[in-house]
TrEMBL record:
This is Carbapenem antibiotics biosynthesis protein carD. Gene3D superfamilies: 3.20.20.220. GO terms for biological process: L-proline catabolic process to L-glutamate. Signal peptide: none annotated. Keywords: Oxidoreductase. It comes from the Bacteria. One of its GO terms (molecular function) is proline dehydrogenase activity. It holds the Pfam family Pro_dh. Residues 88-385 form the Proline dehydrogenase domain. It comes from Arcticibacter svalbardensis MN12-7.
Length: 402
């Protein structure tokens, strides 16, 4: 990742030290560090997080002026700003540390054709901005940002569509194509996020079409593979072989998966076998094997390792050494979310690996579902908040002694 603010290009070729909090929090003032400390402390309290969503929705409904409070706390930690221009400060801060930005328009839960068109336009604007801006190496979009959830479900289940639904789905696919073609013409890679398993086959089919069309010479389109699913390692491997025989490059964002509780609940309610691995070890095993397999087939695959797991980052570094892959090879990116795991992002970037962070943006009320997910994830994931808190405390103590 090229740091635009520093032309001297000091490249540190040592192995990243993830315990180096000075590098991790270089971009944070003492005040910002303190704010992050109190925020993660609050998130750590399960009660506050659980009450948070319903209390926030209640206060918003009765018109209580809580937007400024959200904006200066949880929103400031996990989001870049309300608009692309509003994200400039966040983009610059990341670039100074050698970390790229992935502008993530995070408005969720829309159901109307009008909003799908607006979201598509917004993603095209992001792609236009990314072109010629080395601070923004990748773009991203969510399938449900450009199409109706229930329609994907019907297509996924191979249900018969009405004429109107056929026409509607034709438009959804046209939007995927509009985004991926534009990304191809501008030469800006774009990722397609993965969501619930019960729409994912429909999304995978479109993503495969896009990769066949636009990944002929290089990787432009990346689909997402959730390795908490029992079937995803096999399907990832199959697509790697397909890419070889059909002569296209596979773009694979490799993640563990964010919808575990929801997936399990639905499977239990509806009486089918959960598509999610039975335990964390099984997910980790498939995640590791997916990364290893991609490294072994690096001429055919480009990956983006979307993870906050330190061990996963370290073992990817080892694999890059084993397969003699350069740190700045565009076929390997590490990616994290804004406001989380800065110890990974900035230390990796400092050692000259390709790193980028999702920078979610959008009006405060519209990104609330994203923020609640972050808060819940930080509460429910074993150790995540503890990890963030202890790193922040370590840096506070280092600064106080410096
Ligand atoms: C840049 C980026 C992009 C992302 N994009 C997507 C996306 O498009 N779609 C998506 O779904 N998620 C996405 N995620 C979220 C991701 O899937 C994980 O939820 C999150 O990163 C936590 O996993 P981890 O590898 O960071 O860490 P870890 O803490 O090592 O792993 C936690 C994850 O392990 C799995 N897990 C935990 N407990 C169990 C259990 N008992 N049984 C089975 N599995 C278990 C779950 O997937 C859980 O999220 C993205 C994350 C990042 C950083």
């Amino acid at each position: 990742m090229i740091n635009q603010s520093d032309n001297s290009l000091k490249i540190n070729k040592s192995i990243p030290d993830f315990s180096n909090t000075e590098i991790a929090f270089k971009g944070k003032t003492n005040t910002e560090l303190n704010k992050a400390y109190w925020l993660f402390k609050a998130i750590n309290s399960q009660l506050i997080t659980k009450l948070g969503a319903s209390a926030t929705n209640f206060f918003l409904r009765i018109g209580a002026p809580i937007v400024p409070l959200i904006k200066s706390t949880i929103y400031a930690q996990f989001c870049g700003g309300e608009t692309i221009v509003g994200c400039e400060k966040a983009i610059d801060k990341l670039a100074i540390g050698g970390v790229g930005t992935i502008l993530d328009y995070s408005v969720e839960g829309e159901q109307e054709e009008r909003s799908f068109i607006e979201t598509t336009e917004e993603i095209l604007t992001v792609l236009r901005k990314s072109k010629n801006d080395l601070r923004i190496p990748l773009a991203v979009f969510k399938p449900t940002g450009v199409g109706r959830f229930d329609l994907y479900v019907k297509v996924n289940n191979k249900e018969t569509l009405s004429v109107a639904e056929h026409a509607e789905y034709f438009k959804v696919k046209a939007r995927f194509n509009q985004i991926c073609k534009f990304a191809h013409d501008l030469d800006v890679p774009v990722m397609i996020d993965a969501e619930e398993s019960w729409i994912q086959t429909a999304v995978d089919d479109i993503a495969l079409d896009m990769m066949r069309m636009y990944n002929r010479d290089k990787t432009i389109v990346y689909n997402t593979y959730q390795l908490y699913r029992t079937d995803k390692l096999a399907s990832l491997k199959a697509v790697v072989y397909l890419a070889a025989t059909d002569e296209f490059k596979l773009g694979a964002k490799i993640v563990r998966g964010a919808y575990m509780e929801k997936e399990r609940e639905r499977a239990a309610e509806m009486g089918y076998e959960s598509p999610i691995h039975k335990d964390k070890e099984a997910t980790d095993f498939d995640y590791d094997e997916a990364i290893r397999f991609c490294m072994e087939h690096i001429t055919q695959v480009s990956i983006i390792a979307g993870t906050h797991n330190e061990e996963s980052c370290s073992s990817l570094i080892d694999l890059m050494n084993t397969y003699r892959i350069e740190r700045n090879d565009p076929a390997v990116y590490f990616a994290q979310l804004l406001g989380m795991s800065d110890h990974l992002s900035f230390n990796l970037a400092d050692s000259a690996y390709n790193v980028a962070k999702y920078v979610p943006y959008g009006p405060v009320k519209a990104v609330l579902p994203y923020l609640f997910r972050r808060a819940e994830e930080n509460t429910s994931l074993a150790g995540q908040t503890g990890r963030e808190l202890s790193l922040i405390m370590k840096e506070k103590s280092r600064r106080s002694k410096a």
